[in-house]
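Side project, low priority. Logging it here so it doesn't get lost.
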Amino acid sequence: MKRTCIALLCSLLLSATAWAVDMPAAGGDAGQGSASSVQIDETFTKTNKWLSQQNLNLTGGPSGRDDAAAFSQEVILFYGEGMAGPQHTHPAQREMMAKRAAVVTAQRALAEYLNGFAIVGDTLVKDGMAQYDIIRSSVAGFVKGAQVVQQEYSKEKDMAVAVIKLGLHGPKGFASLMYDKMMKDPSLKKTLTEVDGKPAPPFRAKAERLPEKFDGLIIDATSQDFRPALINRIFSVKGELLYDPSKISQKVLVEQGCGEYTNNVDKAKAALEKRGVKNPLVVTASGAINPSDLQVSDEDAVKVFSANQQGNFFSNAKVAFVLK
């Protein structure tokens, strides 16, 4: 059971008759790449133009990965490079096989990426795959079902690139299906409010009277080693749970996720405005329990608790996380 389906997927994908250009493993810790580091060679003008027109950033490729891009644009975009084998001598055949190989490379990289995707806390998808059949089958299905949105061949380089797309939220989104599966599996659902296998105590305090009403929350985590995950939680410094999926309407969680992800407070305000937020409370994370779970000071914990008691914004996931 500890063998994941990733190895099987990779062996099937690599059985293609063309040559896939090797890519660095994408299954490491999240947040190691940046939008500027994940780029396609400028030779492939058609593909670069498409990305620009769609206002999309690549989540991963040979040069890195960018988890923040996936969550901020709600789309996972991976690209692969491929070349035809020496047995393919006809120009049209070389182009076709190079494109096929590029898709294989992109699929392999996507499988490795999802393998290292954070679910909650320190738990990665690969950990969940080893324990839960529903996660294993979901990941396998999503890799096979990823949409090929761009293919381009360069005669100059005798190489092709392919871009594959996987949505995060919505009816067929990866995160949406994972949320739905987690909420329906009792043993998996209970892990969403646990830390190190033990239930985290809920935050309790006497609600304070705040000078104004807040209808959302922005948590600035730019000073923390923080990464987006399917489930990002907020704790007090004492380890009491302030914000977690149990606070969110299941419909909202499946359709929109735990919140918005941006790289500055102004963008966070703009993102929350689309969710109907006019006056968000802004606090700074004081620490992190692990890369997916943040902590706030005792004073801010009471503010957040009191603001939500009045504004009830947690239930609609009107929360934004600001990353480095």
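Brief comment: The chain is about 35% helix and 25% strand.
Revisit when time allows.
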